Each structure stands twice: as C-alpha cells, then as structure tokens.
Model the fold of this input.
Amino acid sequence: MVLEDKSAIVYGAARSMGGAVARAFSAAGVRVFLVGRTIETLTLGNVPASVALPVLAAWEVAIGLGLIIGRWMRAVLLLLIAQMLGTITPLVLFPAETFVRIPYAPTLEGQYIIKNIVLVTAAIVLGATVRGGELTNEPVVVTRQSGGSA
Done:
C-alpha cells in the first residue's frame, strides 16, 4: 500500500476527528506517533499537543545533556524515569495501536515503548550509584561484629 511504512504525527489525536484520522492511518500501515495523543489523554485534554511536544522535546534535551555532563544526576534520573513512565502509558491507553496481538506481538511503536522499560531499569541501576553505591562484579560480604563482651 502507498502509506505503508510512512510516519505521521496527528495533532488532536486524542479526540474526535484527530482520533479517527490516527486510527485510519494506523489501519493503513502508517506509524502514528502517540506522543501528543498520550499527553492529551493523560491531562484530560487540558494540555494540547502543540504545547506538549515542544515541552517534551526540551525535557528530553535536558535529560540528554544531564547524562552527558554527569552533573545533577538525581534530578536527571528523576526526569528520565518520569518521562519514561509517561512513554510507557500508551501500552495501556492505546493497546490497539501498540500491539498486533495483545500482549505478545507489539507493533513498531510497541517495540519502541517496551525498549523504554529496559532504559528505566538501567536508570534505576545508575540511580543506585548516585548516593555512593558501586557496581561490582564480586558480591560484597558484610559481617557484623558483636558489640558485647563474653
């Protein structure tokens, strides 16, 4: 088909006409970006995609710069985890567009979202090192000394 393997961003895809367009594109094989639609749905339509997309882009740039610079890691990892949790929500909100067969055959969008679950777990591991923890190959055995005398 002519539209197969094409991409589209549909503004207002959480409601009425935009939702119908997004579903029609998706059925025709077009990769419909769910970002604006997800944010509109999560905010009950109070934050339109035209506002959400630039804010999300700035948020992601801040995360990237924070990871590259290596400063303010607590805040950067908090932003990363919050962003990734938001990224995962289309699996629940729009399962028809994220899975061909629920729950074992994700679409391209579904695969992208599932990849983010791996990134969240990596961020949690990095977060363990922020407060002085270390990543080691060998387990550390901690022994307690008794405080009393015999």
Remarks:
- The longest helix spans residues 108-130.
- The chain is about 60% helix and 5% strand.
- Residues 143 and 149 are 17 Å apart (CA to CA).
- The mean pLDDT is 76.
